[in-house]
């Protein structure tokens, strides 16, 4: 356009300016009316101004009743967002023949789902059918992370809820307890999460627990040589038999030093050969990830900054927005 302009011609340059202006208007109109909305900060500012405050309060109240709810909100974010998108598909109940995501083997050990409904009910009382369960998954994790003394992240909202369960995708996207680090890194990379952010996200294993069924493979018949021998003794004490009853609540804490604090102790632990899962321990033997482990172990603030970046990327994976999906009334069922 500019190339065709006669130099010094006042008339043609105003025309060009007008053209640019209408182009801009067109772009703006497209942005606002395409029905394909975008995630944004405080999406509910007008439609439900108290939404975030209510969720924050509920998360705090639940934390003081049952501290491990905050841990659950963090794991929920991972399991919901990694499968297709953060769309609360995780929260759906099993219905006639379709096993729900949360009932799948890969969700073993997940807990506190009933309290999600308590948070949703409090939000529904204030603003019926306005705030999605998907945003409740994300915001409960955001505030849960703060209760665990992790970073204040500030995540976008405006997600909608899926109308279906993606249980058939769970096996492809939720890694097993014995998944290799290489596979986990390529899984994250497939949804736009780089290696450093992935290493930071695994720092979530600074809190919570692992059940013996997910540990014994590294203890029996022989101890995985990458586990510190003293620590292996401790773990065998926690998990005394090679075939634990999956129903028995035998487990070990992820981090014995600060089990309820989302800090960089996880990285010191794995540097000391005290990683519980294969994927945790492999972070220190893979040359691509070891430099990040060392950096995070030395600097909690830096770890928190990268953890925040990882959570933001994960939480923005492929959202349903605009008129896609729905706003569920009860997080356990499609409307
Ligand atoms: C990518 C590889 C990952 C694998 C293979 C993995 C696997 C596991 C396993 C096996 C457990 C123990 C379950 C049990 O026995 O009760 C667990 C717990 C946990 N995971 Fe992961 N996880 C991964 C990534 C993540 C990420 C990215 C997050 C969050 C950002 C996360 C958050 C948690 C939390 C908070 C727990 C503790 C749950 C509780 O105590 O209730 N995990 N994970
Ligand atoms: C991972 O664990 C499952 C069940 O615990 C087992 O069947 C499978 O063989 C293990 N995979 C590897 C690569 O060790």
Automatic annotation (TrEMBL):
Q: Where does Ca(2+) 2 bind?
A: 255, 258, 263
* UniProt GO molecular function: heme binding; lactoperoxidase activity; metal ion binding
Q: Which residues bind heme b?
A: 205
Residues holding Ca(2+) 1: 80, 83, 87, 89, 101
Which GO cellular component term is one of those annotated?
Answer: extracellular region
Which parts of the sequence belong to the Plant heme peroxidase family profile domain? 38-335
Task: List, separated by semicolons, the cofactors it needs.
Answer: heme b; Ca(2+)
Among InterPro entries, the record links this protein to: Haem_peroxidase, Haem_peroxidase_sf, Peroxidase_pln, Secretory_peroxidase
- Function of the molecule: Removal of H(2)O(2), oxidation of toxic reductants, biosynthesis and degradation of lignin, suberization, auxin catabolism, response to environmental stresses such as wounding, pathogen attack and oxidative stress. These functions might be dependent on each isozyme/isoform in each plant tissue.
Q: What's this protein's name?
A: Peroxidase
- Give the organism, scientific name: Cucurbita maxima
Species lineage:
Eukaryota, Viridiplantae, Streptophyta, Embryophyta, Tracheophyta
């Amino acid at each position: 356009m500019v190339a065709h302009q006669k130099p010094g011609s006042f008339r043609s340059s105003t025309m060009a300016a007008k053209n640019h202006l209408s182009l801009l208007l067109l772009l703006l109109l497209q942005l606002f009316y395409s029905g394909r909305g975008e995630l944004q900060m405080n999406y509910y500012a007008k439609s439900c101004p108290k939404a975030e405050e209510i969720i924050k309060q509920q998360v705090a109240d639940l934390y003081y009743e049952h501290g491990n709810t905050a841990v659950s909100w963090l794991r929920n974010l991972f399991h919901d967002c990694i499968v297709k998108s953060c769309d609360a598909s995780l929260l759906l109940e099993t219905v006639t023949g379709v096993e729900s995501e949360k009932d799948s083997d890969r969700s073993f050990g997940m807990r506190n789902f009933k309290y999600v409904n308590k948070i949703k009910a409090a939000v529904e009382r204030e603003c019926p059918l306005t705030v999605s369960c998907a945003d409740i998954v994300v915001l409960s994790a955001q505030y849960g992370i703060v209760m665990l003394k992790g970073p204040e992240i500030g995540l976008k909202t405006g997600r909608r809820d899926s109308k279906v369960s993606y249980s058939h995708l769970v096996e492809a996207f939720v890694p097993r307890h014995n998944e290799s680090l290489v596979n986990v890194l390529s899984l994250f990379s497939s949804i736009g999460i780089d290696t450093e952010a992935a290493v930071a996200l695994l720092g979530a294993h600074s809190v919570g627990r692992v059940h013996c069924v997910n540990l014994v493979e590294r203890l029996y018949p022989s101890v995985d040589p990458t586990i510190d021998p003293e620590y292996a003794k401790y773990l065998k004490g926690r998990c005394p038999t090679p075939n634990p009853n999956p129903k028995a609540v035998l487990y070990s804490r992820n981090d014995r030093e600060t089990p309820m604090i989302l800090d960089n102790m996880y990285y010191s632990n794995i540097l000391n050969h005290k990683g519980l899962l294969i994927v945790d321990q492999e972070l220190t033997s893979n040359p691509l990830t070891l430099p990040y482990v060392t950096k995070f172990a030395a600097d909690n603030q830096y770890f928190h900054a990268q953890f925040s970046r990882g959570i933001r990327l994960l939480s923005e994976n492929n959202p349903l927005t605009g008129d896609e999906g729905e706003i569920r009334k009860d997080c356990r069922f499609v409307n």
